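Chapter summary example.
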Amino acid sequence: MKRLNIFVFLVLILSLTFPINLEKSKELFLYYINNFETSNDDEFLSNTRNSINTFLPIYRYYKIELVGSVEKTDVSKKIGDYLNVIYKQNISNDYTTQLARAAFFSYLEASLERKKFEASFIKSSPNFNSFFNSYQSKVIFAARNYLSDLLAKHLGAKINLDGNADIEDAPQYSFEFEYTPKFKEHEFIDEIKIILKDEEIKKNFVNYLEIISKNPERIVPNINRYSGLLQRNVIKSVSNLKNIFSDEFEKTLPKSYNFWWLRWVAYIVLILIAIKSKKWDLVMFIISIVEILYLYIGFDILSNSDATIYGLISFSALLASLIIFIKNKKFLEISLIALLLISFVIPTYYTKDFHMKNLKEFENSPYFTELINDVLKDKYSKFSNIVRELTTIANSSIIETEDIIKRLSINLNNFTEKIKDPEYKSVKNFDGRVNDFKALTTEFSNYQIEEKIREKQFKKAENNLEKFTKKVAKISSDAFENEFLKEIQNDLNFEEISPTVKKVNETIKNTRDLEKIPIQFYRTKFGILTFVFLSLGFFLTSLKSKNSIIWNIAATLSSILMLINPIIFFVQSGVPLITFNYIIVIPILLVISIIILIRSFKPIKG
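The structure predicted for these 606 residues follows.
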């Protein structure tokens, strides 16, 4: 009960005195959520929506195309880190507004990751932490400065303190000393007034005053020291606000429910009924209809759980049906499954809309800068690794070459001195001369072997750079290419490696843009659905089930929907779907669907 009272007290104080008005912040948070999808008048919401729904998928697509999906950074990036790019563009000077925005971005993160918006998630969100860490550090810094000035004032310094925040019953001394006030963060005076009511801080403040008063010769250094010790108590007092904020925002969001999971319970009941009644065809018909409806209406392409469940079901069904067809020598069905598997590598669509050179608005978005940083400037990026390898090999070659030339010069000087000695040239010294030159020959031989290895390594790295350059030239825009060449010039800025820089410039100049971006069927919503329908249709066909017709009809319908512009494109889990128009389509799945549908009406013998 005592803990609850403290919690209520803190919430009340936050609402009344802190620069953060928690109640107003929660209202603003709900406003953001309720108007995010529809508002065009609110610049923050419209810009955020456009960045997340349009520019974030483009950024992730090109990041994956250029360097792959694996994040090679100090800390693996998550959806919250991608959203942080936008969050940093929308920092408000008003702490109430910024807290609402931080919580809102945490909500967007949870929504995209398909996770519950709860206190533990909020506290781990990069955007919420970004806000709170900044706010907390400023409060702590302000409190330490104020406590330092307050110690000085109680010890006799002639200074004025803003806000009249003081610790009651603290002793007053009259030492004379020079002291420069530190406190300037007047906007946090309300937080400081609350902090000064903390019993542990009050107790330690009085205690430290007494200690400092016993050593007046070191008043100022001791003020600095003990204000630092008081900071530890301040940190403990302020850090509890994070729990309060996250708990309050969790309670603010109305609960939402998804009842689709109940279908699994219904399936179990239906199967139990079928076991007793033996009406398997009817039960499978009902389950098939419900599942097809779910896949069209409720299936979440961004959900990891849905993707895992239906991915396993689809591939298992396809493999089982292939085994059955091979066993029964059903060559048409085997050929159709083979064609379906081949379609994973043959692009279904070609589009111009998704080419970076046609996405001029993207170049003005913060995600374009983020793409440049990730691909070209990050020290762990593929590009940085190639450049680092090139410079390391080139520098090693230069150092080793200079070193052997220096040693050669020293040896020549030694030979010049030795040749003056008749005994060295004597017929008795053949072995001595041979050994001298043998040592020199061994040294040259070692250098040649190592230099050949370095040459091979350099050519390999240079070849990797050429491949990367061609990829950049094919799919990126002029602005990105210019940034790429700028990085090449900066990173390989020494004369010895200038031929490589020249090759890069020639490759960029001579490589033609990829006119049409190829897209596989499994990167689209209806492409994924068609594959699921076909897999289960094949499986039921292999079992000679009448219900295979239902799945094959669903596959045919879905494959027709695949042809309707614009198509819904899937970039990766956690990133919004994006739509674009295609210019060419190869309808392999439609052909397969129609053939297997027609085949469904003809019973399979054997």
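To summarize the output: Confidence is low (pLDDT under 50) at residues 1-17.
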